[in-house]
Amino acid sequence: MSSQVNEPVDHAMGSQIRKHEGEGEGEARAVPEASPLATVEGIDVSGHQRNVDWPAHWNQGKRFAFVKATEGTTYENPYFAQQYNGSYDIGMIRGAYHFALPDVSSGAAQANFFVDNGGGWSPDGKTLPGALDMEYNPYGDTCYGHSPNSMTAWIKDFSDTYFHRTGRYPVIYTSTSWWDRCARGDFSSTSPLWIARYAGSVGALPYNWGFHTFWQYSSTPIDQNAFNGGYAQLQAIARG
């Protein structure tokens, strides 16, 4: 079990992937090679960014944002309202994310905690389905004590609960290395893939996903993401 029960924690999306897989000094900091007509640029933030200067990011061309809402079943981002509402108010399409701790409670319990604390979805055309952040355990065992089969069952429990609460399946954020080691389940027919890879291309994708929807390609100077499609396609995902 993790130490999360007794003290608030805040692990940013990708923090454990970078710790275990590294982030290159060269190509990872460059904007990926792609036609500007085929991608939309965005960022993700957590409590570590505190009050975010949304006009500055808008002026840099960022058009979507994911904001950390929760972790496990006890942590809530104290800056969530400023970040989630601020990105919306400046004109971005926004969504929330949950940092999973699969060893402290069930997938259903964490999905409910997420939805109850900012992770819901509404068909307003400006809100993306919530994202489930699946990555290395910050506290110990890489796979949180789960086998690939039990981890897949945990993710399905979260995913199905989120769907029953919101009418949408969550986006799944992960790295190929972690997923192939710890999960290996097939969610390609329900959940959009948000791949973490800090390089000039997305590389191999996790099991059975034929394409990625979002790509976190750098953490400098803030987590940088690209949507794999045009702005109208991003709007379509938001509308459901």
Which key phrases capture this entry?
single chain; 240 residues; alpha/beta; TIM Barrel; 8-stranded mixed β-barrel; globular
State the name of the first-level CATH class. Answer: Alpha Beta
Q: Would you give the CATH topology?
A: TIM Barrel
Low-confidence stretches: 1-8, 25-37
Q: What is the global morphology?
A: globular
**β-strand amount:** 15-25%
3D architecture notes:
The protein has a single domain (34-239), classed as TIM Barrel, CATH 3.20.20. It is built from seven helices and nine strands. It has helices at residues 15-21, 54-59, 80-90, 107-116, 148-166, 176-182, 231-239; strands at 39-45, 64-71, 75-76, 93-99, 131-133, 171-174, 193-196, 214-218, 223-228. α4 packs parallel to α5. An eight-stranded mixed barrel has the order 1-2-4-5-6-7-8-9, surrounded by four helices. It is an alpha/beta fold and 240 residues long. α2 links the parallel β1 (39-45) and β2.
Care to give the gist of this entry?
By secondary structure, the protein is of the alpha/beta class. The longest helix has 19 residues, at 148-166. The chain has seven helices and nine strands.
Set down the secondary structure blueprint.
Blueprint: H1 15-21, E1 39-45, H2 54-59, E2 64-71, E3 75-76, H3 80-90, E4 93-99, H4 107-116, E5 131-133, H5 148-166, E6 171-174, H6 176-182, E7 193-196, E8 214-218, E9 223-228, H7 231-239
Parallel strand pairs: 1-2, 2-4, 4-5, 5-6, 6-7, 7-8
Antiparallel strand pairs: 1-9, 2-3, 8-9
